[in-house]
Amino acid sequence: MNFGTQPATVLARGSTGQPSSSWGSSGARLTVPRTDSPKWGRFGPLAAVLALGAAGFFAFSSSDTDTFEPVTEPAVNAADLPLGSMFHVVDQIGARALWAQGITGAGVNVAVIDTGIAPVDGLLDSDKVVAAVDLSSEGADQATAFVDANGHGTHLAGIIAGRETGADPALAEQHPEWFLGVAPDAGIVSVKVGDRNGDVLPGGLVAGVDWVVDNSAALDIRVINLAVGTPSNLPYENDPLAAAVERAWDAGIVVVTAAGNDGADANGLLTPANDPYVIAVAGADVSESGINVADWSSSGDGVRNPDLSAPGAHIESLRAPGSDADVNHADTGYVDAETFRGSGSSQAAAIVAGSAALLLDARPDLTNDQVKAILTDTTTPLAAESQVAGSGLVDVAAANSAAAPVATQTFSEAAVDTSVSQEPLTAYIWFPEAWSGASWSGASWSGASWSGAS
After folding, report:
1. Residue 386: CB partners within 8 Å, gap ≥ 6?
2. Backbone angles phi, psi at 74, to 5 degrees
3. pLDDT higher than 90, residue 236
4. How many Å apart are CA 240 and CA 283, to the nearest integer?
5. What does the pLDDT read at residue 213?
6. pLDDT, mean of residues 139-165
7. pLDDT for 444
8. For 102, left (φ over 0), alpha (ψ -120 to 50), or beta?
9. What is the mean pLDDT of residues 238-247?
10. How far is it, in rounded angstroms, from Cα 446 to Cα 147?
11. Rounded distance, CA 427 to CA 422, Å?
């Protein structure tokens, strides 16, 4: 599959340039509300051009010097926070125990292939967003390039590695008001492929994965979070997206995907979760009565099932002011100026991606096959069949204590040649000095149930 050279888009040759399906009408534009939240800011460096295969990156900064002013968080009691708050989520999966040992994801960068990232508190530290590339239809416009006009990418990036300004993971247990993601010192590489409506141009997901593979060494990318699912009538061995994620796996990158939100009646996992090499994550619902697989979480087919589960219901993470989610789902998703509530296997996948970053911080010599084996072998069992729950709920503290196994996956490999051609692809890329200012073929982002329900 070859891609054209249109700025800021990735098109299959012969494509009309329009997504084949969408969540809403096409052509929507982002209007940035500058006064909606005291935590809102704009990023300064805005555009550059990267030719894939070139020896280096070329970036320049704009003169935008708008600054961000954090607000003082009022103290809260942990008991008053909902179970879907990140304060409780990190305890549900054992992450706080690793924080106490100084294991916070430092030195590990996670590529979030999604709808971009909004410059909000929690993603504003100078070393938080390592790089941002825009391969979406919005990349050519400075008003929309890199920015998350949908809300999904920001929500997941916050879960993975968000860190509120001034928050210290070592002291977080005494400050429930602070926002910290699972791996608060991990870096984020934002690979924007989706627009305001969540639409992805044909070939955009494959191109996004290939971009990460090509730049993983330069950007120290160890983990990909790809929380998207698309139906396919092809076995994974013949699927272009499955072939792309296998190229990433072959490059040593841990690829985390969402199992999907089609419930127990699903006829198997969607692509790319159906590829057995990657980590497919089911969504769990944590309530006062216990932890169960959410009724919306997709079931496998008995051959390829979810690998494990993670909390995915009513998760409160970073809000993207003015985004599609913020505007159209505020009545059920809005929590406060900083956070938004969402449910789905996307959120669960982000929790496992953050867990992988913690594990690689503690044990950087682990291979991706070993990371997958350790995470799936040390879960807490759930009262559900493996066809819907995988091996159980992720326990990253137990994973870190487990011996490194001998693990090499030997499944049949996808054999589709879908690599990007040698012809340069024009994209827009930005490398930060400081972030604060110095659906193809029926694909859907797996888990943006902004109502907080299924």
Report:
1. 305, 306
2. -70, 145
3. yes
4. 25
5. 97
6. 93
7. 53
8. left
9. 94
10. 20
11. 14
152 given a catalytic annotation = yes
Before 184, cis peptide (omega within 30)? no
Known active-site residue 114: yes
| C-alpha–C-alpha distance, residues 353 and 182, integer Å | 9
C-beta separation of 302 from 330 below 8 A: no
pLDDT digits (tens, 9 = 90+) for 390-434: 999 999 999 999 999 999 998 999 987 655 444 444 456 665 543
Looking at 232, 346, 439, 449, which residue is catalytic? 346
Residue whose C-alpha is closest to residue 396's, from 155, 77, 130, 108: 108
Place of tokens 């040759």: 13
Residue matched to tokens 């699972």: 182
DSSP state of 44: S
8 A C-beta contact, residue 318 and residue 299: no
Which tokens go with 322? 């003015």
By CB atoms closer than 10 A (0-12, 13-18, 19+), residue 263 is middle
Catalytic residue among 61, 85, 136, 152: 152
Mean pLDDT of 355-380: 98
Written as one letter, the residue type at 121 is: D
Enter the tokens of residue 126: 């100078």
pLDDT at position 46:
23
Q: How far apart are CA 255 and CA 281, in angstroms?
A: 11
> Which element (helix H / strand E) includes 151?
none
Q: What's the confidence (pLDDT) of residue 18? A: 31
Q: Which of 27-36, 294-303, 442-451 has the lowest mean pLDDT?
A: 27-36
**pLDDT on residue 419:** 52
Q: Longest Cα pair distance anywhere in the chain, in angstroms? A: 57
Catalytic residue among 61, 114, 324, 343: 114
Q: Are 431 and 59 a contacting pair, CB within 8 Å?
A: yes
